[in-house]
Each structure stands twice: as structure tokens, then as C-alpha cells.
Design a protein that fits this description.
The protein has helices at residues 49-54, 64-69, 73-78, 82-86, 98-102, 130-140, 158-178, 196-208, 225-236, 253-261, 271-277, 309-313, 316-324, 328-354, 358-369; strands at residues 6-12, 19-25, 28-32, 34-36, 60-63, 92-95, 108-110, 115-118, 125-128, 144-146, 185-190, 213-216, 245-247, 266-268, 280-281, 288-289. It has 373 residues and is of the alpha/beta class. A hairpin with a 2-residue loop joins strand 2 (19-25) and strand 3.
């Protein structure tokens, strides 16, 4: 029993089985299911911590790989940890850098010890081992930290996927043995690619290690969404019900719904901020490309149903003007909106679960958004 963390299931939706939960951390309480904005380099692009609070952000995600390379975990530690360094007093989750390291392709070499890689910034050589990653994450000081895993690309053959999965399990045990701080919740990561039996085997292995929480990795890497949902159903039947579940790197509206319906409590995704910088908005009536000429004289809000600062004060025509004029404010306003849209969607899902009508809410949302049921 860790005194710093507590996860409670408050209600299960009678209509869908989805769960309403509460995760208590040293820096605050998180109502689940939740979406986590991504602040890769100790900042959510275009957003200040005050603005993140205003749109009711509960928890942020930062990245171990990027912060290790720049500015360095020792500097962050010297600054008083990630919370003080970035001016955010709420919960923070750091991923282990596994996905980033394995995305480096020819710039990295995997061994049983860990991963040797060259920095994408200057080509310098580095080694990530489970022990080293735990040391870095301890210095960063996030509330929730991830075990170091190997993220298998899609597609990958069965033999490679199985070897990688077993290595991830061995690394998970090494992470547990080398964890330095009790006030950080270490999550294990389920792998196994798109092979149902391997996913089941990995879920059982990670569950048996008794982490505070469990993450599901190696999905949303190019596989069809229906395959991802099938893998979620496999692990949903195995992972312990009394611990939080985190689906890594997933955040489109349909995936949020389908994940929640399959027992997921936590999500993160860069989609919201990335498309904002490209002039796109998520709205209750489907995505809009605001930079298009059709919005030149559209004096309505980005989304009439949204309660964010951008929608309350500005029009599509104005934001399109900012985009065409290459003004920074365009990206800021669309980022505020897209993040609030996803955070509000999760608030609505939590309310629907509480009222035993998540499937009804999903149907209403999909019809309005233009998604097939």
C-alpha cells in the first residue's frame, strides 16, 4: 500500500460497464477517465500553465527522452523538479522515452542491457537502461512514471514481437528494483503488438508484477483502429480492475470513446496541439480546417457548443485571418480550443457514466460529429 497514491472506482456505468474513477497523487486528484495534454519539453506548445488551469486540465504529460537531452535531468532537479521548473503545481506524468528512442531507427541499437542511441539534436551517443531511466525520472520528479519498454513498430513479425515483449517484461522488473522514490507511481507497460495471445500473455505478466497502475503501449502506431480495439478488449479482461489503466498516445474523439468503453482510464495525444498549429479545429460537428476560404466571412465561433476563451471571444473569420497573416495568436487560440474540446468531452463522458447513459451519449455525439456508429 503506497501512502502517496490511491485509485478508487466510484461508479460503473450500468449501460456500458465503463468506469468512473478517482486517482489521488501527491500533486492533486485526477477524475477519470481523463485526457492528458502533452507537454513534451516541459511545456504544452502555445499554452501557459495558467491557461491550462483555465481550461480545467487535471494532469500533464512530459517526456523523459527530450528532457534528458535538453535541458538535462540534473538541471531540472537543481531547479526543484519538473513542477517548479515549468510552473505547474498539478499532477505530471513522464513517459520513459521508450517510444522516442525506438523511433530513432538507425540511430539506435537494442541490447539486453538497454538501448544505445545517438541524439537527434547533435548526434552524441547515449545509453538508456531501465536503471538509468529510473534515475532520470526520479530527478524529473513527476507523480506518475513509466517503466522503460520496447515499443514494437507496425507491422512487425510474431517472432520479433514476442522477443521484444519478453525483454520489456525483464526491463519492467529491473525498473521496479531500481525505482528510487516512493512518491512516484511506477506504471508497467503491456506490449505484444497486434497478436491477441501475446497481448494476453503480456497483460498477465505485467499484472503479476503488481504495479500501482498499468499502461497499454505499442498501439496507435499505424494499425487499423479496429485492431487496436480488439487488443484493448483482450487486456481489459486481464488487467486488475482496481488499478488505473493508461492507453498511451491515443486521443481522437472516437478512440477516446472506444477506449473508455474498453476499460481505459487515462489517455494522452499530441493530435490536439499539432493540428491546431496547422489551422485545424476539433468541433462538436466534426473537424474543421479553419484556414480554408469557406470561413473567410464566417462570423460564428469555432464551435458554438464550446465554452473556451477562443469560442467565447473570436470568430472563425478572425482566426482564419490570423492564420493567413501567420500570426502566433492563431495557433494559441486553436490550441486552447482543441485542448478544451477534448477535456470537455471527457467531462461529458464522466457525467454520462455517472448517469448510466454512456452509450446514449456516444450515439448522440457520433451523429452530430459525423462518425459512423
Amino acid at each position: 500500500m503506497n501512502p502517496y497514491f490511491k485509485f478508487e472506482i466510484l461508479h460503473e456505468c450500468a449501460q456500458s460497464g465503463a468506469r468512473l474513477g478517482r486517482l489521488t497523487t501527491p500533486h492533486g486528484v485526477i477524475e477519470t477517465p481523463c485526457y492528458m495534454p502533452v507537454g513534451t519539453q516541459a511545456t504544452v506548445k502555445a499554452m501557459s500553465p495558467r491557461e491550462l488551469r483555465e481550461i480545467r486540465t487535471q494532469i500533464l504529460l512530459s517526456n523523459t527522452y527530450h528532457l534528458y537531452l535538453r535541458p538535462g535531468h540534473e538541471l531540472v532537479k537543481e531547479a526543484g523538479g519538473l513542477h517548479k521548473f515549468m510552473g505547474w503545481d498539478g499532477p505530471i506524468l513522464t513517459d520513459s522515452g521508450g517510444f522516442q528512442v525506438f523511433s530513432l531507427g538507425d540511430l539506435r541499437k537494442i541490447t539486453e542491457e538497454g538501448v544505445e542511441f545517438r541524439s537527434h539534436l547533435d548526434g552524441s551517443k547515449h545509453l538508456f537502461t531501465p536503471e538509468r531511466v529510473m534515475e532520470i525520472e526520479a530527478a524529473l520528479g513527476a507523480d506518475i512514471i513509466m517503466a522503460f519498454d520496447e515499443c514494437v513498430p507496425y507491422p512487425a513479425d510474431r517472432a520479433y514481437t514476442e522477443r521484444s515483449m519478453h525483454r520489456t517484461h525483464r526491463w519492467a522488473k529491473r525498473c521496479q528494483k531500481s525505482q528510487l522514490r516512493q512518491d512516484q507511481a511506477l506504471f508497467g507497460i503491456v506490449q505484444g503488438g497486434t497478436f491477441a495471445d501475446l497481448r494476453a500473455k503480456s497483460a498477465r505478466a505485467i499484472a503479476d508484477m503488481d504495479f500501482i497502475g498499468n499502461a497499454i503501449g505499442g498501439l496507435s502506431v499505424g494499425e487499423p483502429k479496429i485492431v487496436m480495439y480488439e487488443m484493448l478488449e483482450v487486456v481489459n479482461d486481464i488487467l486488475p480492475k482496481n488499478k488505473p489503466r493508461y492507453l498511451m498516445g491515443v486521443g481522437s474523439p472516437d478512440c477516446l470513446f472506444e477506449g473508455v468503453l474498453r476499460g481505459v482510464d487515462m489517455f494522452d495525444c499530441v493530435l490536439q496541439t499539432r493540428i491546431a498549429r496547422n489551422g485545424q479545429a476539433l468541433t462538436s460537428r466534426g473537424p474543421l480546417t479553419i484556414r480554408n476560404a469557406t470561413f473567410e466571412r464566417d462570423f460564428t465561433p469555432v464551435d458554438p457548443d464550446c465554452d473556451c476563451y477562443a469560442c467565447k471571444n473570436f470568430t472563425r473569420a478572425y482566426i482564419r485571418h490570423l492564420i493567413k497573416a501567420e500570426e502566433i495568436l492563431a495557433a494559441r487560440l486553436l490550441t486552447i480550443h482543441n485542448l478544451r474540446f477534448s477535456l470537455r468531452l471527457m467531462e461529458q463522458m464522466r457525467e454520462a457514466i455517472k448517469n448510466d447513459r454512456l452509450l446514449d451519449f456516444k450515439k448522440e455525439f457520433y451523429e452530430k460529429y459525423g462518425l459512423a456508429q
